[in-house]
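Q: Can I see a sequence and its folded structure?
A: Here is a first one.
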Amino acid sequence: MKKMKIIMGLLFALILLLAGMILFLLKKQDTPPENRETEKQSTQWSADSLKKGRVTAIDYSGQVYGYIGSKKDAGEKIAAYGRKQREKYDNPGVKEIEKQMEDEFGIFAVNLGEMDEETAKDVKRAFSYMYETYPCLQGTLTSVTLGNPDNYADGNIAKTESREFVINGELAVCPFVVKHEIVLYAPSFLQRDTLLKKCKDGAKQGYWPENMDISAIVVHELGHQVLNVHTMEEFGFDDIYYITEENQDAYNLYLTDSLSSRQTVPKVVLKEAYKTWEQTHQGEDYESFCRSISEYALAVQKDGGISYTETFAEAITDVYLNQEHAADASKCIQGRYKN
């Protein structure tokens, strides 16, 4: 009798197990295919999955070590690094645009990577406008590249920078080679629709000038370079990518002035433009002058000060986008520079 009860109990447990499996399979069959895919993906989630389609194979921040004996060799070294990066992606239409930009604008290396052709054309459109409007830009940028940001979640879209590229044994030992480059961040420039929406929303909120678009983002960065060129001229910094004992002092002065704590040259340009603007906007302070361009033109820094370089770049962008309808402050800033 006891043995029979054990057998019956095991049979009952087996029936319950089979019933549970049948119910699970029926439920899974009723689940729509798209939901089943979502369930599958959720089990495979990782931090890297957020980066899918938002990273580039390009290593823009690489450095090399060695002795470079001439300015010509310095330029070739930068160009060779760009060609090496170009081998990492297959994008024939964009590669053609890259080569056109190198030829037209005197840039050693243009690497737009996996960017779609329409976005690459937006980049080139910005360069065409700026190099025609500000001929001083010719020959002052060594590189333009798509790149992964140092901090993926920092929210930045692009940056204009100068940095040591060919290191002669140790940092700052002459001669060495410097890159002057614009980096377009892959998380933004590989997501065209998302970036366009960000431009539209930013303009609507007054964060950026009216009619903001992708080409204007690049114009903004080139605006920084216009002011960089002016600063180079002020310090007599020539042969800007090949640094020797003859021009190292000028390079150091230029580099120091680019720090947020100094900005002596940009400050002169912006303060003089403000004085012109104030003549027709009496009683309005410098903050109002900046804000009339965009909220971003205020560019409040971590130390509480205003970034004069960001205000300048926003003004150049505003004039590009809105021409005669640009803010009076933007016109005064552009007029001060061009005079």
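Q: Show me another, different protein.
A: A second, unrelated one:
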Amino acid sequence: MNKCMKYKLLLLSISIFLLISESKSQIVAPNCLHYPYNTQVGINLNINMLNKMRIQQNYYTRSSPSEYLRSYPSLGADLGVYLYQRIYKWFGIQIGAEYSALTLIYGNTAKFDAEHYVTMGYYGFGAFTFPILFNCSYYFNEKHGLDISLGGAPLLLFLGDAGQSVTDGSSMKGIRHKTRLKNNNRYNFSLCGKIGYNFLFKNKNTLGVAIVGSYAAEPYANGNYHVDINDIEVEKGYLFLHNTFIGLQFSYGFTMKKLLCKADK
């Protein structure tokens, strides 16, 4: 084999090696884009449209609403911290702790006319929940990603025990209602999930916005009410509060451990 042929074989070998290396890098790099970090610590803020407080006359029959009172959707806010750990590729688990500042609004129904109304009533209280979510974070490129989570949130501490007595504005008919809502001291669990968008910074920190929702079949607080007209009780019933809502979440994640591409070859 002459010297010219050796050089040609050497150049061919180098070319084949470069092509193989380039093909491997093209395979590895997109995978790293899809899951760019391993561990995150973050904060989130939820702005929630809370589920209305259920007001009903009969404890066992939900089809018997109050003829005098009704509740309205109200705003609330959750502030929390979370720890995210990637498990495999773009799948991971997120564990957090949230404090919820809640409000409830209720008032008269069409039973009263415009001249004799019941002043709106408000409840304000707080609660602690501890969501555990299974997460899928898929990044389409170096900036934009999709975030989907599903899991549950135990509610272990409810900070509310309030009562209120409200009289109608005119007092001509002597319409009066009194409500009492308290913690029923029972463990509560709700299903929760979210779907949203994540923006990935160069340092692998993330900024996200998502639609969040929660549903609980069992109430974590209950109470009672009664309505009097001219000091005569015309109705009494029960109040139920569930950890059920839909809202908007804003989050920021601080990446503690970035993904090493070589480990995923």
